[in-house]
């Protein structure tokens, strides 16, 4: 394959698989974060009922969210349950293409249900899901891949398992589903997405504080920007080098991604830089999905060379012989799985019915040699437990045997180490014994071979396998071309959209034509590529929303902190990223239509509305936007809303002149 | 005491035998009919998407969500605002219904179809009638019945995947047919059947009014101009009461009989088909006379649940008697011939086709007893054509057919026809299918023959399996899979029990014939179950008496360029209903008018006003801007029996609007010189 084409048009299937897992975890984490505030943001009890949002969007460009159909708390909970299921199935890679598309729809729905919560993180996560949609995210590290691999597992004896070799590439490609191709515009779209994102991050940071290293420190002084961790370290000295990393790292990553030489090293370095940058944004800032999506996106940069090096590197110290119960179906299935996962060939699989010697292989691909049975290893033991024999003659049994085998398999080494920790392994021993005692019954339940009965044929039988493995027919090839063309069209649209939108929303220094349909696609899919994080400079002011409410029990509290209102901005913001995004917007003039719903929410007690205690209902409340220069100084206060007679502190902030009436008009601070 | 449990067991067996089982063919037929009707109904709603389902129309989604019409209300359609989005929603829902109809991923699409169709109903409850509830219920039952087992793409694909005949000889084994028609035991069968009977039960007992007793119902119903079709007008004007009265009474008696025929545990071979025929006759006559929306057609669809195993066997008996068995000879070395054989074997529900393999080496150039000249001059040109073509190409024909009792092999159209005669009721459908396919069907064998080389190279480049290849059969399911299936079945039955309880209580609450003291309390969760997806149980069309006052909604609007128009119909407004002979309104339009006129729906009139005031945005023509309008409920009294002319034409203004500073220009009719008094059009 042309190396240039491979560089720009192909993403390794293992990178895609790892990205799917990382992105699935990011999405689930995001959902958990949203779930905490499900009633407040996603039901009609919250700050924005669905009808109010739809009404405010009337006449504007198209915004679509399936969650607009959801009204009550119970419905929202059900919808979140469905979304969780979709994300989990995407994570494990079952019917991957379908659940990939559904994950995109789910995140789009979560994003578009309440636009006040939207951040650059939503744009990035949606853009990543969109550009990878034409690519086969489920062809590695997925349940789909496992099912496909084990459907072809027709070995019937330990010797056949031992002799297993991966299928040749042409056979693998012949078995691919229609639409799969090693080269795709989708690969280019992914590369362009990563490069443009990094480039925009660098170019947007034009201010002097990004050059003198003070930007992160200043940004972390902004209450709503800093996460609790970021707030805690805002004066730390390491923020200066971190600022340079966040500033120059993306520029370097963009260059490394595009350089078509030394792919293994350059791509790995780019991925490392993206992970570092992403962790800074994710841990220190309230930027929603952004940092974690960037970390997930870094996996897409990993090259085939890096994966091959990882998969085929042979460590003689990890060579082991695995002895399993050849009469047990589930044991045989696991042995076949191990044989498929063990790409460097560390493991020799041996049945307990051939126990005259221990078979060992001392070099990668070398001949099998016979080693005398270690002392203590006999047929009776091999009948009770799986055994992993090391070349020095020592061996492990029960759960330790499992962890030992895992440590020899690429990508499972860490899992093997963790499971082998004292305490964990003892717990696993108990589980192992329970399963081992019932292994024949479990095998029978699963329809696998038991007590010498040959392992069951798979659905459709060997004939089906033969037919599946045969060269694809011209008809099948034609179908692939058709579906592949559809996929490429989607990829081209995604690529064009992200290029146009990135140029439109960022200071890249280039002006591109903005075709209406592409802008509409970007708008509708919320892939708006706004990568201006703390750009060009950190904000000069910091602000926060304070509610000043008097409850029926005469308590004077801030509805969000449940403490006495503090009209100060110098404090960490503990409500999380969703509220931070909401507060950043709700005081702005452009969002005035949303204030009425916020007032209703506050009148019900705000986040306390679901506690059911009538004493926690406010008799009156004011919501204030408190803003002060980051450098210090007297905070300015602007009322966002008033409910009832207002809060008790209202008089303190009243302008000179007549006392405020029961519901004075709000004054907007500034237009966005 | 010891007799108690055994009697219970016997009762259980009896119930299981009579009501708790369903033939998979029945479920398959039900799926096809309901899927087809759902598709048709979706197209009907889709055609009025702009006015009734988008934010350009009379009820925006945000207003619906702000003022939900029911305590438990959910609609996926609420998420779709603009016309373009609504088109996407209808396209998605139609795709689900179509997939259900053809039986592709039947279970999944049955559930999705139910959610979509209930959402479509809930998006505009103003036009809901009993027919919509029937639609929701039939779609719900499709989710729970074993609809995927027969007559579905799923069943075909499964059969082709799991039973891989690899030689022509394997076709004779017909392993795919084993056990496929075994009845399925499920409570859904009883629930769906009893629910159907309950529809007729309450329709009979709720119709307790004097008009029904006098037999004047048909007369009055045919004079409802807002509902009737053009066919009803000549009937109401020319058919004497002496005939209309028996018609009205016959409706009552047929409905009463239907309930008994549906539930009868005896002679079901007769009672069930009779019930189906009665339902079809009753509802088809309703359907062609009146615009009731989906009610009539979905009731006919619902009746497809009724055929029992006995009925299918009787049908098979009849079909066999009309069919003619045949032997199909296929080229043993052709994968195309094998594929044709596999398809034919699966279409051959009665097993009347026998398959023979013929190897290329065994091909005689001509028949054993007649020369080519003899054949050419005989009356069997088709046979000769097939034979000579295959002989000329040096290949065995893909397919030849010899009907039983015939001594020669047929090719071409004659072969296709002979196969058609052997398939179930081929004699009935062969000719229509030939017409529908524009003559393609009989030409299929010849087309396959002509293109066999290309087809085989395209589809089966590896050729046939080895001669000693065994057919590939599926392994038996694992015990765990069986256990999971059993658990799934139990959960389904639990759901059926729950639904049964909810439906019973709902039926007690909704039907007027049940006295108040018999109505049990309805827990909120039960109410939510029936209301969220609109699976209600109130059955009483035209009860206790039919409507005797007709009425339509009319908008009397002036456009900026001086035209007078009703924007809802695009026609001049109808301000007097008396001379009208059928309004020609669709069910959605007429039910919307009938509901929006009610004071209790006053809250939704704002949507109508917004629609009227922004009508020129919808049409995209500035000259369509409406500058003044009055919305009237125009009524008339239906004529008394024996007369044909309605009386007492009235109109009630329920909304009125003048654009600020608008004055009627000189020469304008004085109909709307000033806003009329807003009146009540009743509830």
Q: Return Rg of chain B in Å.
A: 31 Å
Number of strands of chain A: 10
The radius of gyration of chain A is 30 Å
Biggest β-sheet of chain A: count, sense, barrel?
Answer: 4 strands, mixed
Structural class by helix and strand composition of chain A: alpha+beta
Silhouette of chain A: globular
Termini separation of chain A comes to: 51 Å
Multimer state: heterodimer
Q: Number of helical runs of chain A?
A: 30
Strand neighbour order, sheet with most strands of chain A: 2-1-5-6
Give the low-pLDDT segments of chain B: 363-392
Mean of pLDDT of chain B: 89
**Class by helix and strand content of chain B?**
alpha+beta
Question: What is the percentage of strand-forming residues of chain A?
Answer: 5-15%
User: What coarse outline of chain B follows from CA principal-axis ratios?
Assistant: globular
The level of helicity of chain B is: 40-55%
Verbal overview:
The complex is a heterodimer of chains A (672) and B (683). Chain A contains 30 helices and 10 strands. Chain A has helices at 3-9, 13-35, 38-42, 50-57, 73-92, 96-113, 120-131, 143-151, 158-162, 169-175, 185-204, 208-212, 215-219, 228-232, 239-258, 263-284, 290-298, 304-312, 329-341, 379-384, 398-407, 413-419, 424-437, 439-445, 461-469, 474-505, 516-524, 577-586, 595-603, 650-653, and strands at residues 320-324, 347-351, 358-361, 368-371, 387-390, 395-397, 541-551, 556-557, 618-629, 636-644. A 4-stranded mixed beta sheet of chain A has the order 2-1-5-6. In chain A, a hairpin with a 4-residue loop joins strand 5 (387-390) and strand 6. In chain A, helix 21 (398-407) runs antiparallel to helix 22. The longest helix of chain A has 32 residues, at 474-505. The radius of gyration of chain A is 30 Å and the shape is globular. Helix content of chain B is 52%, strand content 8%. Chain B has 28 helices and 9 strands. In chain B, strands 7-6-8-9 form a 4-stranded antiparallel beta sheet, covered by helices on one side. A 3-stranded mixed beta sheet of chain B has the order 4-3-5, covered by helices on one side. Chain B is globular, with a radius of gyration of 31 Å. Chain B starts with a helix and ends in a 25-residue tail after the last strand. Mean pLDDT of chain B is 89; it is low at 363-392.
